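Hello K.,

You asked for the raw outputs rather than the summary table, so here they are, unedited. I folded two proteins back to back in the same session to keep the settings identical. This is the first:
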Amino acid sequence: MKAESCAALLKAQDRILLVTHRNPDGDTMGSAAALCSALRRCGKTAYLYPNRQVITKLLPFVEHYFAPAEFAPDYVITVDVATEKMFADGFSGAVDLCIDHHPSNSHYAADELIDPDRAATGEIVLDVIRALCVSLTKDEADLLYIALTTDCGCFQYANTDAHALRTAAELLEAGADNSRLNQLFFRKVSAARLKLEGLIYNSMSFYKDGKVVFAIVTDDMLTQAGATEDDCDDLAGLAGRAECGSVSITIRDWPGGASKVSVRSGADFDSCALCARFGGGGHKMAAGCNLPVPPLAARELLLEAIDEVWA
C-alpha cells in the first residue's frame, strides 16, 4: 500500500484507535499522535490507546490524545509496531492497518503500509498526512520532528540519509521548534541520569579486540543513581560511543530474572539477525530482544550467537 491509498482507506473509516508499542519511544508516540491529529482535522473520531509507559518528557505532547475508558473503536491502527508481541501493555485484538518501517515486521495486520527504507515511521506518516490534509499543523510538525530525530539520534545514527534530512527541513518549514525539542530530548538530562551514565560506563566490557562492547544496566545501578524509568531513555546509545566498537550491546535487568537486550552496530554486522535468534527483531543496525536469563548469563548467550552471525 502507498500513502495515497492508505489515506483513501482512512477517509472511509471512523472511530479510530491508534496503538503504539510497549516501552514507547519518540517515533511510535510522535507518529501516532500526529496521525491522530490529522484524522481529527478530517472530521474523524480518533484517539491513542493510553500507553502508560510513556516517559515524562514525552507525555505532555501525547496525553491529550489518549482514549477515554469508554471508547470502543471501529478501526484499529498500529504505528511503528513490528510484531504482536510489541503491542502496548494491555492491548489485544485484531489490527486493521499497520504503519511501520521495521523490515522484521511480522505482517499481522489486515492492511499495511510498510517502508523499511525510511529512517523513521514518522516519515511514512508525514506522507499519509500530506495525502489526507495536504498541509501540517505546527503541533503535527513538532510530533513528527520528535519521531524522526529520536529514531535518528538527532541525525547522528547511520540511518540518517538525505530523505531524513529533507524531511527535517520540511518539518521546520511547517513550524517544528527544533531548538526547543533538541534541548529537551538530546541536550538536557537529570542529575540522576548523569550518575547512571557514569555507572554504566564503568560497567562496560570489551570483546573481540574491542569490536564488541557490552554495557549492563542493573536495578542496583538505578537505585544507586536515584534514577527512574524517565532517566533510561536511549541508554542503548551509550556503549556505541566506544571508538573501537563495531557492535554495542546494552543489557538491562528485566522483571522475573530476565534481560532486555538492545543491539546497535555498523553496516558490517546484522543486529536484526542476532536478535532474531532470540525471538527479537528490528533493523540491520538497530534491533532488540528479550532473554529469559539474568544479564550476565545473557551476555554469554549473545557472545556465542555473535560468533555464528558474524561469519
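The second followed immediately with the same parameters:
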Amino acid sequence: MADNTYVGKIVYATVFSISMAFIESAVVVYLRALYYPDGFSFPLKLMTNNLMGIEVLREGATIFMLLSVAALAGKRFWERFAYFIFCFGIWDIFYYVWLKFLIDWPLSIVEWDILFLIPLPWIGPVIAPITISVLMLISGMVIVRLFHRGYDFKPTTPSVILFLIGSGIILYSFMRDTGATLHQQEPMPYLYKLLIIGAMLYITSFIISYRRIVHTSRGIV
C-alpha cells in the first residue's frame, strides 16, 4: 500500500505539473499574438500597468498552486519542499515543450526569453531555466525517494549556505540587465559562467546533504 501511495503521488504531481505547464504556455501564446505578432524578440514591448499587474499576480498564483500540491503530497517540511521543486522542474521544462509544440518556439536553446516577473523581470537564454529545472526535478525526486525509504532528509548548514549563494548568483544573472527588462534596450550577453557556478553550488550542496544522510542512517538507498 505504501508503494502504491508513493507512486500515485508522483504520478499525480507529474500530471498536474504538465497540465499546468500547458495553461502557462497557452497564456504566453495569447500574449505574444497581441504584443509580438511578428515573433517574439527583444527589445521588450511595454504592457499597460493593468495588464502587467495581472501578469505579476498570475505568476504569483502559479507558485502558490505548486506550493499547495507540495503541501498535500508531503508530510514534513523537507518532503514538501522536495515535491515543490519536483513539480516546479516538470512545470518549467514542459512549459517550453508545449511552446515548441504550439508555436514552434524556441528555435534553439540559446534563444532569449522572459523567465519571471517577481520582484523584477528575469531574462535569459532558454537553456538557463531548463538547466536549473532539470536539477530541481532530479534532486526533488531523490529526496522524495529518500523519505519513502525511511530516511529523514535534513540539509546541513553548509548545504543551505551553498544553496543560498548559488541561488543569489543565478538570480543575479537573470535580473542584472535592468536596461533590457525595464528600459526596452537590447539585452547584454548572458553570463553563462554565473549559471555554471550556481549549478555547481547546487550540486555540491545536494551531494553534501545526501552523503551525510546515507552515511548516518541505516539501510541502503
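Residues 2-35 form the longest helix (34 residues).

Happy to rerun anything if the numbers look odd on your end.

Regards,
P.
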